[in-house]
Design goal:
By secondary structure, this protein is of the alpha/beta class. It contains 16 helices and 10 strands. The strands form 3 sheets. Strands 5-4-6-7-3-8 form a 6-stranded mixed sheet, with helices on both faces. α4 packs across α5.
Length: 347
Protein backbone atom coordinates (compact mmCIF):
# COMPACT_ATOMS: atom_id res chain seq x y z
CA UNK A 1 0.00 0.00 0.00
CA UNK A 2 1.27 3.50 -0.82
CA UNK A 3 2.28 5.65 2.12
CA UNK A 4 -0.68 8.00 2.47
CA UNK A 5 -1.44 10.02 5.58
CA UNK A 6 -4.67 9.32 7.41
CA UNK A 7 -7.21 12.13 7.16
CA UNK A 8 -8.70 13.80 10.22
CA UNK A 9 -12.47 13.45 10.47
CA UNK A 10 -15.06 15.26 12.55
CA UNK A 11 -16.43 12.63 14.93
CA UNK A 12 -18.56 14.98 17.04
CA UNK A 13 -18.84 18.79 16.84
CA UNK A 14 -15.88 19.04 19.24
CA UNK A 15 -13.80 15.93 18.51
CA UNK A 16 -11.68 15.01 15.51
CA UNK A 17 -10.38 11.49 14.97
CA UNK A 18 -7.94 9.94 12.58
CA UNK A 19 -9.26 7.63 9.87
CA UNK A 20 -8.93 4.13 11.30
CA UNK A 21 -8.49 0.66 9.81
CA UNK A 22 -10.05 -0.25 6.42
CA UNK A 23 -6.66 -1.40 5.09
CA UNK A 24 -8.20 -3.83 2.63
CA UNK A 25 -10.57 -1.13 1.37
CA UNK A 26 -7.67 1.24 0.75
CA UNK A 27 -5.83 -1.49 -1.18
CA UNK A 28 -8.96 -1.86 -3.29
CA UNK A 29 -8.95 1.89 -3.96
CA UNK A 30 -5.33 1.59 -5.08
CA UNK A 31 -6.33 -1.23 -7.42
CA UNK A 32 -9.02 1.00 -8.92
CA UNK A 33 -6.46 3.76 -9.29
CA UNK A 34 -4.30 1.46 -11.40
CA UNK A 35 -7.05 0.46 -13.82
CA UNK A 36 -9.96 2.90 -13.50
CA UNK A 37 -13.61 1.83 -13.53
CA UNK A 38 -15.40 0.50 -16.58
CA UNK A 39 -18.76 0.99 -14.85
CA UNK A 40 -19.81 3.27 -12.01
CA UNK A 41 -19.24 1.53 -8.68
CA UNK A 42 -22.12 1.83 -6.22
CA UNK A 43 -21.30 1.01 -2.61
CA UNK A 44 -24.17 0.19 -0.26
CA UNK A 45 -23.81 -0.02 3.50
CA UNK A 46 -25.58 0.68 6.80
CA UNK A 47 -26.08 4.27 7.89
CA UNK A 48 -22.98 5.45 9.69
CA UNK A 49 -20.79 2.48 8.76
CA UNK A 50 -18.05 4.77 7.43
CA UNK A 51 -18.81 5.28 3.73
CA UNK A 52 -18.20 9.03 3.87
CA UNK A 53 -14.98 8.58 5.85
CA UNK A 54 -13.73 6.04 3.32
CA UNK A 55 -14.44 8.39 0.41
CA UNK A 56 -12.59 11.23 2.14
CA UNK A 57 -9.61 8.95 2.73
CA UNK A 58 -9.86 7.73 -0.88
CA UNK A 59 -9.27 11.31 -2.07
CA UNK A 60 -5.83 11.18 -0.43
CA UNK A 61 -5.02 7.84 -2.06
CA UNK A 62 -6.17 8.93 -5.51
CA UNK A 63 -4.20 12.18 -5.27
CA UNK A 64 -1.06 10.07 -4.76
CA UNK A 65 -1.86 8.30 -8.03
CA UNK A 66 -2.17 11.56 -9.92
CA UNK A 67 -5.96 11.79 -10.07
CA UNK A 68 -7.89 15.03 -10.29
CA UNK A 69 -10.47 14.08 -7.68
CA UNK A 70 -13.88 15.61 -7.03
CA UNK A 71 -15.79 14.49 -3.93
CA UNK A 72 -19.37 15.67 -3.64
CA UNK A 73 -21.43 15.18 -0.45
CA UNK A 74 -24.84 16.71 -1.30
CA UNK A 75 -26.34 16.09 2.14
CA UNK A 76 -23.75 18.32 3.86
CA UNK A 77 -24.90 21.84 4.70
CA UNK A 78 -21.47 23.51 4.59
CA UNK A 79 -19.77 24.06 1.24
CA UNK A 80 -16.35 23.20 2.63
CA UNK A 81 -17.56 19.71 3.53
CA UNK A 82 -19.94 19.31 0.62
CA UNK A 83 -17.27 19.76 -2.05
CA UNK A 84 -13.69 18.50 -1.76
CA UNK A 85 -11.20 18.52 -4.63
CA UNK A 86 -7.55 17.72 -5.24
CA UNK A 87 -5.12 20.60 -4.64
CA UNK A 88 -4.23 20.70 -8.35
CA UNK A 89 -7.79 21.65 -9.35
CA UNK A 90 -8.78 24.01 -6.53
CA UNK A 91 -8.44 26.97 -8.88
CA UNK A 92 -10.86 25.36 -11.32
CA UNK A 93 -13.30 24.58 -8.53
CA UNK A 94 -13.23 28.19 -7.26
CA UNK A 95 -13.80 29.43 -10.80
CA UNK A 96 -16.82 27.17 -11.22
CA UNK A 97 -18.27 28.02 -7.80
CA UNK A 98 -18.29 31.72 -8.67
CA UNK A 99 -20.64 30.96 -11.56
CA UNK A 100 -23.30 29.49 -9.24
CA UNK A 101 -25.33 31.76 -6.98
CA UNK A 102 -26.38 28.76 -4.84
CA UNK A 103 -23.67 26.09 -5.25
CA UNK A 104 -24.92 23.96 -2.34
CA UNK A 105 -28.19 23.29 -4.16
CA UNK A 106 -26.41 22.64 -7.46
CA UNK A 107 -23.49 20.48 -6.33
CA UNK A 108 -23.83 17.85 -9.03
CA UNK A 109 -23.82 20.51 -11.74
CA UNK A 110 -20.80 22.11 -10.08
CA UNK A 111 -18.96 18.77 -10.06
CA UNK A 112 -19.76 18.04 -13.70
CA UNK A 113 -18.60 21.50 -14.76
CA UNK A 114 -15.35 21.04 -12.84
CA UNK A 115 -14.89 17.68 -14.58
CA UNK A 116 -15.50 19.27 -17.99
CA UNK A 117 -12.86 21.96 -17.35
CA UNK A 118 -10.37 19.32 -16.20
CA UNK A 119 -10.82 17.50 -19.49
CA UNK A 120 -10.45 20.78 -21.36
CA UNK A 121 -7.32 22.05 -19.59
CA UNK A 122 -5.32 18.89 -18.95
CA UNK A 123 -3.97 16.41 -21.50
CA UNK A 124 -5.37 12.93 -20.90
CA UNK A 125 -5.95 13.47 -17.17
CA UNK A 126 -6.81 10.93 -14.54
CA UNK A 127 -10.23 11.88 -13.14
CA UNK A 128 -12.09 10.58 -10.09
CA UNK A 129 -15.70 11.52 -9.35
CA UNK A 130 -16.87 10.44 -5.88
CA UNK A 131 -20.53 10.97 -4.96
CA UNK A 132 -21.59 10.45 -1.36
CA UNK A 133 -25.24 9.56 -0.59
CA UNK A 134 -26.23 10.42 -4.16
CA UNK A 135 -29.62 8.69 -4.21
CA UNK A 136 -30.83 10.35 -1.04
CA UNK A 137 -30.06 13.76 -2.56
CA UNK A 138 -31.57 13.26 -6.02
CA UNK A 139 -34.59 11.21 -4.90
CA UNK A 140 -34.97 7.45 -5.00
CA UNK A 141 -37.13 7.65 -8.12
CA UNK A 142 -34.16 9.17 -9.99
CA UNK A 143 -31.53 6.63 -8.92
CA UNK A 144 -31.56 4.62 -12.13
CA UNK A 145 -31.41 7.70 -14.33
CA UNK A 146 -28.39 9.06 -12.51
CA UNK A 147 -26.54 5.75 -12.65
CA UNK A 148 -27.08 5.70 -16.43
CA UNK A 149 -25.83 9.28 -16.63
CA UNK A 150 -22.66 8.28 -14.76
CA UNK A 151 -22.15 5.35 -17.12
CA UNK A 152 -22.42 7.76 -20.05
CA UNK A 153 -19.74 9.94 -18.48
CA UNK A 154 -17.39 6.95 -18.54
CA UNK A 155 -18.36 5.70 -21.98
CA UNK A 156 -18.71 9.00 -23.84
CA UNK A 157 -16.25 11.58 -22.47
CA UNK A 158 -16.10 14.98 -24.11
CA UNK A 159 -12.31 14.52 -24.39
CA UNK A 160 -9.97 11.60 -23.88
CA UNK A 161 -8.78 10.82 -20.37
CA UNK A 162 -6.11 8.37 -19.24
CA UNK A 163 -8.30 6.81 -16.54
CA UNK A 164 -11.55 7.59 -14.82
CA UNK A 165 -13.04 6.41 -11.53
CA UNK A 166 -16.70 6.89 -10.59
CA UNK A 167 -17.75 5.89 -7.06
CA UNK A 168 -21.20 6.32 -5.53
CA UNK A 169 -22.14 5.56 -1.93
CA UNK A 170 -25.61 4.96 -0.51
CA UNK A 171 -27.14 3.82 2.78
CA UNK A 172 -30.50 3.53 1.03
CA UNK A 173 -31.13 -0.13 0.25
CA UNK A 174 -34.41 0.04 -1.68
CA UNK A 175 -32.68 1.08 -4.91
CA UNK A 176 -30.21 -1.77 -4.90
CA UNK A 177 -32.28 -4.11 -7.05
CA UNK A 178 -33.43 -1.30 -9.32
CA UNK A 179 -29.99 0.09 -10.18
CA UNK A 180 -28.46 -3.36 -10.46
CA UNK A 181 -30.94 -4.89 -12.88
CA UNK A 182 -29.76 -2.80 -15.86
CA UNK A 183 -26.08 -3.79 -15.57
CA UNK A 184 -25.19 -0.09 -15.70
CA UNK A 185 -23.02 -0.30 -12.60
CA UNK A 186 -20.99 -2.60 -10.38
CA UNK A 187 -22.44 -2.99 -6.89
CA UNK A 188 -20.35 -3.57 -3.78
CA UNK A 189 -21.26 -3.66 -0.10
CA UNK A 190 -19.52 -2.11 2.89
CA UNK A 191 -20.20 -3.23 6.45
CA UNK A 192 -19.46 -1.83 9.89
CA UNK A 193 -15.88 -1.84 11.13
CA UNK A 194 -14.04 -4.96 12.18
CA UNK A 195 -13.41 -5.40 15.87
CA UNK A 196 -9.75 -4.45 15.49
CA UNK A 197 -10.52 -1.32 13.47
CA UNK A 198 -13.30 -0.34 15.85
CA UNK A 199 -10.83 -0.61 18.73
CA UNK A 200 -8.55 1.89 16.94
CA UNK A 201 -11.44 4.36 16.68
CA UNK A 202 -12.71 3.76 20.22
CA UNK A 203 -9.21 4.32 21.66
CA UNK A 204 -9.13 7.86 20.23
CA UNK A 205 -12.10 9.03 22.29
CA UNK A 206 -11.19 11.04 25.39
CA UNK A 207 -12.36 10.60 28.95
CA UNK A 208 -13.79 7.68 30.87
CA UNK A 209 -15.77 5.22 28.80
CA UNK A 210 -17.37 1.80 29.09
CA UNK A 211 -15.33 -1.28 28.32
CA UNK A 212 -14.63 -1.89 24.65
CA UNK A 213 -16.53 -5.19 24.65
CA UNK A 214 -19.66 -3.52 26.01
CA UNK A 215 -19.53 -0.79 23.36
CA UNK A 216 -18.87 -3.35 20.63
CA UNK A 217 -21.97 -5.35 21.60
CA UNK A 218 -24.10 -2.19 21.40
CA UNK A 219 -22.78 -0.78 18.13
CA UNK A 220 -21.62 -3.81 16.19
CA UNK A 221 -18.68 -1.69 15.00
CA UNK A 222 -20.77 1.15 13.54
CA UNK A 223 -18.86 4.47 13.91
CA UNK A 224 -21.97 6.67 13.94
CA UNK A 225 -23.58 4.51 16.62
CA UNK A 226 -20.39 4.99 18.63
CA UNK A 227 -20.68 8.75 18.15
CA UNK A 228 -24.32 8.71 19.27
CA UNK A 229 -23.42 6.76 22.37
CA UNK A 230 -20.61 9.17 23.17
CA UNK A 231 -22.86 12.21 22.67
CA UNK A 232 -25.47 10.58 24.93
CA UNK A 233 -22.95 10.28 27.76
CA UNK A 234 -22.57 6.56 26.99
CA UNK A 235 -26.26 5.96 27.79
CA UNK A 236 -27.69 3.06 25.76
CA UNK A 237 -31.20 4.03 26.86
CA UNK A 238 -30.91 7.57 25.53
CA UNK A 239 -29.41 6.31 22.27
CA UNK A 240 -32.12 3.69 21.77
CA UNK A 241 -34.93 6.17 22.32
CA UNK A 242 -33.23 8.63 19.99
CA UNK A 243 -33.47 5.96 17.28
CA UNK A 244 -37.09 5.23 18.18
CA UNK A 245 -38.07 8.87 17.87
CA UNK A 246 -35.88 9.65 14.88
CA UNK A 247 -37.27 6.77 12.84
CA UNK A 248 -40.79 7.15 14.25
CA UNK A 249 -40.93 3.51 15.22
CA UNK A 250 -44.09 3.88 17.29
CA UNK A 251 -45.88 5.00 14.13
CA UNK A 252 -44.58 1.94 12.28
CA UNK A 253 -45.71 -0.42 15.04
CA UNK A 254 -49.19 1.10 15.29
CA UNK A 255 -49.73 0.63 11.55
CA UNK A 256 -48.89 -3.07 11.57
CA UNK A 257 -51.42 -5.88 11.36
CA UNK A 258 -51.21 -8.63 13.99
CA UNK A 259 -49.62 -11.02 11.52
CA UNK A 260 -46.99 -8.39 10.75
CA UNK A 261 -46.29 -7.95 14.45
CA UNK A 262 -45.54 -11.66 14.68
CA UNK A 263 -43.21 -11.35 11.69
CA UNK A 264 -41.37 -8.49 13.38
CA UNK A 265 -41.07 -10.46 16.65
CA UNK A 266 -39.49 -13.35 14.77
CA UNK A 267 -37.11 -11.02 12.95
CA UNK A 268 -35.91 -9.61 16.27
CA UNK A 269 -34.63 -13.08 17.13
CA UNK A 270 -33.51 -14.09 13.63
CA UNK A 271 -33.49 -11.51 10.82
CA UNK A 272 -33.26 -14.25 8.18
CA UNK A 273 -36.95 -15.05 8.82
CA UNK A 274 -37.69 -11.93 6.76
CA UNK A 275 -36.64 -13.90 3.68
CA UNK A 276 -38.33 -17.15 4.65
CA UNK A 277 -41.82 -16.04 5.65
CA UNK A 278 -43.51 -15.47 2.31
CA UNK A 279 -45.22 -12.29 1.12
CA UNK A 280 -45.95 -11.00 4.63
CA UNK A 281 -42.31 -11.19 5.66
CA UNK A 282 -41.14 -9.68 2.38
CA UNK A 283 -43.42 -6.71 2.94
CA UNK A 284 -42.00 -6.24 6.42
CA UNK A 285 -38.46 -6.50 5.04
CA UNK A 286 -39.19 -3.64 2.66
CA UNK A 287 -40.45 -1.44 5.50
CA UNK A 288 -37.41 -2.16 7.66
CA UNK A 289 -35.00 -1.51 4.79
CA UNK A 290 -36.78 1.75 3.98
CA UNK A 291 -36.26 2.89 7.57
CA UNK A 292 -32.59 1.82 7.44
CA UNK A 293 -33.11 -0.63 10.29
CA UNK A 294 -31.96 -3.77 8.48
CA UNK A 295 -29.81 -4.50 5.44
CA UNK A 296 -29.55 -7.37 3.00
CA UNK A 297 -26.26 -9.25 3.14
CA UNK A 298 -24.90 -10.43 -0.22
CA UNK A 299 -22.82 -13.58 -0.44
CA UNK A 300 -19.67 -13.15 1.62
CA UNK A 301 -17.41 -13.30 -1.41
CA UNK A 302 -14.49 -10.90 -1.50
CA UNK A 303 -15.36 -9.65 -5.00
CA UNK A 304 -18.72 -8.35 -3.71
CA UNK A 305 -17.38 -6.35 -0.77
CA UNK A 306 -15.35 -3.24 -0.09
CA UNK A 307 -13.20 -4.12 2.91
CA UNK A 308 -14.25 -7.12 5.00
CA UNK A 309 -17.75 -8.65 4.91
CA UNK A 310 -19.67 -9.01 8.19
CA UNK A 311 -19.05 -12.07 10.34
CA UNK A 312 -21.08 -15.16 9.64
CA UNK A 313 -24.35 -15.44 11.48
CA UNK A 314 -23.97 -13.70 14.84
CA UNK A 315 -27.07 -13.73 17.02
CA UNK A 316 -25.60 -11.32 19.57
CA UNK A 317 -25.03 -8.63 16.93
CA UNK A 318 -28.28 -9.34 15.06
CA UNK A 319 -26.51 -10.62 11.93
CA UNK A 320 -28.03 -13.45 9.92
CA UNK A 321 -26.77 -15.24 6.85
CA UNK A 322 -28.80 -13.03 4.49
CA UNK A 323 -30.28 -10.18 6.55
CA UNK A 324 -28.81 -8.16 9.43
CA UNK A 325 -29.96 -5.43 11.75
CA UNK A 326 -27.80 -2.43 10.97
CA UNK A 327 -26.59 -2.36 14.58
CA UNK A 328 -27.66 -4.06 17.83
CA UNK A 329 -28.96 -0.63 18.92
CA UNK A 330 -31.32 -0.56 15.91
CA UNK A 331 -32.63 -4.01 16.80
CA UNK A 332 -33.13 -3.01 20.43
CA UNK A 333 -34.95 0.16 19.35
CA UNK A 334 -37.41 -1.94 17.33
CA UNK A 335 -37.78 -4.35 20.26
CA UNK A 336 -38.46 -1.53 22.74
CA UNK A 337 -40.97 0.17 20.45
CA UNK A 338 -42.86 -3.08 19.96
CA UNK A 339 -42.80 -3.89 23.68
CA UNK A 340 -44.02 -0.41 24.62
CA UNK A 341 -46.86 -0.51 22.11
CA UNK A 342 -47.95 -3.92 23.40
CA UNK A 343 -47.74 -2.76 27.02
CA UNK A 344 -50.00 0.18 26.28
CA UNK A 345 -52.44 -2.10 24.51
CA UNK A 346 -52.18 -0.08 21.33
CA UNK A 347 -51.66 -3.11 19.07
Amino acid sequence: MCAVGRVRLLFTPTIEVEFADRDRALRQVEDLAERGTRFPIVVYGPEGCGKTALLRQAVEVLDEYGYKTILVSPLEDELGRALQVSPSIRGIALEVLKAFSEPLTNLLQVALKVKALIEERFVRPRIALLLDDLFQSVGLENAERYVKMLLNIIEYPSRRYENIIVLVSSSEGLTRERVGRHEWCKIYSLWNMSRGGFKQLYSQLPGEKPALEEVWKLTGGNPRALAKLYEAGWSPEATIYDIIEGKRLYKLILQLERSELSTLEEALEDPDTLLAGGAEAEKMLGKLIELNLVAEIPARRENLWIDEPPPKKDHELGIGHYIAWQTPLHREAARRALKEALRRGRV
